[in-house]
Amino acid sequence: MKIVVLTGAGISAESGLKTFRDADGLWEGYNVYDVATPEAWERNPVLVQQFYNERRKQVITAKPNRAHEILAELEAHFDVEIITQNIDDLHERAGSTKVTHLHGVITKSQSDRRADLTYVIEGDEIKMGDLCELGTQLRPHVVWFGEAVPMIEVAAKICRQADLFVLIGTSLAVYPAAGLIDFIPSATKKYIIDPRTPDVGRYKNVTTIQQSAVEGMSALKEILLNGR
Question: Has 103 been annotated as catalytic?
Fold first, then answer.
């Protein structure tokens, strides 16, 4: 059975990483449009670089939680593919082997000119003056507001193949990622794990688990492995 999992900020929050955008529109005290847009990078690249260097340090010190670990453990029983909106690498560090990052991953850098030129960061910082092979400044490998999401078509293809779909810790408010559920076959069983279940009333075969990512994944593991 192929299980396709779409994860959002809620799963990383239980590892101590703040959600990408809080209810007040701020991310770690910054307006997201001041640190997460191409215009912000053009206007103040030093601020943007510093912001992501700090976020990267937080990611490196964070640890995968039990929800991440359960998803990795399920690979022993099922074909599990994870699509994540998160820019951390906690899924990989928990042991998951098939992870598609929709919005990039903060532990990599990319060319300021070509997003497909990516590099693993040595240490936890990108410094101003660090250049790609084209001679332009390196920036975080993160998809900003207003930029294309290059992996969305890959993710849509994965969703079409789902025998079972799991949504964890996302409100389905950020597009185009939120539209991925539309590619899940109608007959496919769908589980939604989130304390505040998003509006999925128009979809069929949906079971909601109104719990945190850790609690919800523990419950779903029992369902999948023991039928209860």
Answer: yes
Categorise residue 211: left if φ over 0, alpha if ψ from -120 to 50, beta otherwise: beta
Domains contained in the chain, CATH given = 1-17+65-103+148-228 (3.40.50.1220), 19-61+106-142 (3.30.1600.10)
10 Å CB burial of residue 15 (0-12, 13-18, 19+) is buried
Helix (H) or strand (E) holding 138: strand 138-142
d(CA 49, CA 63): 23
**Is there a contact between 217 and 15 (Cβ–Cβ < 8 Å)?**
no
Q: What pLDDT score was predicted for residue 221?
A: 96
| pLDDT higher than 70, residue 22 | no
> Which of the residues 91, 101, 103, 141 is marked catalytic?
103
Using a cut of 0.70, tell me whether the model's pTM lies above it.
yes
